[in-house]
Design a protein that fits this description.
Blueprint: E1 4-8, E2 11-15, H1 30-36, E3 46-48, H2 50-56, E4 60-65, H3 76-93, E5 102-106, H4 110-121, E6 125-130, H5 136-143, E7 148-151, H6 156-166, E8 172-174, H7 185-193, H8 195-207, E9 215-219, H9 224-234, E10 243-249, H10 254-261, H11 284-293, E11 296-300, H12 302-314, H13 321-334, H14 339-346, E12 353-358
Parallel strand pairs: 4-12, 5-6, 5-8, 6-7, 9-10, 9-12, 10-11
Antiparallel strand pairs: 1-2, 2-11, 3-4
Helix pairs in contact: 3-4, 3-7, 4-5, 7-9, 9-11, 12-13
Length: about 375
């Protein structure tokens, strides 16, 4: 295994080229059918941006625009809807009381709103814990879904702990998108729900005559979305596998740090406008996928993200700081000192196709949050 970790000015970088030979099992095929049955379902756009391809010296660049997904401004509704569907189906199958339950979660923004929306849609209650630093508009948007909102004077990890305690009450269920020992089934369902996003990308690239991407860049917090991306691309039939790269804030670079050390670790988080990525501990079920299936990881500054968000807006793509992190990470990896070596590690050339996941829009939350 070849590992490289380096810090060049503001760039923290990890590379593991052997990741492209790792394989795993795919997500269940029925996830996409379930989402297609929901009244507001439609594939989100995959937008080609030739000016970015020219800037980055590659063949084609596409941005998956998740600014409107199932009526919400982020991809999170995919995981929340599938998980709530599975929870309710399991309760019905086991003969449990079919009466209302309280869906409990912690969030930096969009996951909590998605859980609250699904609770309302399916006739249940929601109780959402939000940590310090979440923008008031994000908390208000969750409350507008008829959810009980509890403010926590601490970090995201502290909010998760408080939510887990509250979910121990009768007729309450924790719907958390990070896993730990003893709590893995529901986070696994949430990850499965994100597979629909990847399936759409396949179809959209084929329609655009682009075929398989050469690199996919995904923002990460706890790593659940990255787990779904790794699962999708590392479970495909034999053929050219794309490079997969995670992007996170320098203020909360738990994935880069864990990859560098070879084991999952918790880091102290700081302040960042990428609030939804401000997570200090990787999800336990995501870790194997991140360690084995990611080709690279990079940490970026708030200024990098802000510039990327502004540039995407000028190109017609609504993207908050977390969603724009994918573009900021690509720029950090493919430009500046050492860029040639990083391009080689990613297997990129002048005809390569890049896919950037812009995981949320800017409409409901100026400090948009995604807790990936």
């Amino acid at each position: 295994m070849t590992v490289n970790v380096s810090c060049l000015r503001t760039l923290t970088w990890f590379a593991r080229p052997a990741a492209r030979s790792w394989t795993c099992f795919p997500a269940p095929a029925e996830v996409r059918d379930f989402h297609a049955s929901l009244p507001e379902y439609a594939p989100t756009p995959l937008i080609e941006l030739p000016s970015l391809a020219e800037e980055l010296g590659v063949g084609r660049v596409f941005v998956k625009d998740e600014s409107s997904r199932l009526g919400l401004p982020a991809f999170k509704a995919l995981g929340a809807s599938w998980a709530v569907h599975r929870i309710l189906a399991e309760r019905a199958a086991s003969g449990e009381d079919p009466g209302p339950v309280t869906l409990v979660t912690a969030t930096d923004g969009n996951h909590g709103r998605a859980v609250a929306r699904m609770a309302r849609l399916f006739g249940h209650r929601a109780h959402v814990f939000v940590p310090k630093g979440v923008h008031p508009q994000a908390a208000a948007a969750i409350a507008a879904e008829d959810a009980e909102v509890t403010q926590v004077a601490g970090s995201y990890d502290e909010a998760v702990r408080r939510a887990a305690e509250a979910a121990a009450a009768p007729d309450a269920v924790l719907v958390q998108d990070t896993a730990w020992s003893g709590y893995e089934q529901i986070p696994g369902w949430i990850v499965e729900g994100y597979s629909t996003l990847c399936a759409e990308i396949d179809e959209q690239l084929t329609a655009a005559g682009a075929g398989m991407p050469d690199l996919v860049a995904v923002p990460v917090g706890v790593g659940s979305l990255a787990q779904a991306v790794v699962t999708h691309y590392r479970s495909r039939p034999a053929g050219q596998a794309p490079a997969l790269m995670s992007v996170e804030p320098e203020a909360a670079a738990c994935v880069v740090e864990s990859l560098a050390l070879g084991e999952p670790v918790s880091v102290a988080t700081g302040e960042t406008t990428m609030a939804g990525l401000n997570c200090g501990t990787p999800s336990s079920i995501a870790w194997t996928y991140l360690q084995s299936g990611l080709d690279a990881a990079v940490a970026i500054t708030d200024a990098d993200s802000a510039r990327a968000a502004g540039d995407l807006a000028a190109l017609g793509v609504s993207s908050g700081p977390c969603g724009a992190a994918a573009l900021a990470g690509i720029r950090a990896a493919l430009t500046g000192e050492g860029a040639d070596k990083r391009r080689t590690a990613l297997g990129l050339g002048p005809s390569s196709t890049l896919v950037l996941l812009s995981t949320e829009g800017t409409v409901a939350n100026p400090h948009a949050a995604t807790d990936h």
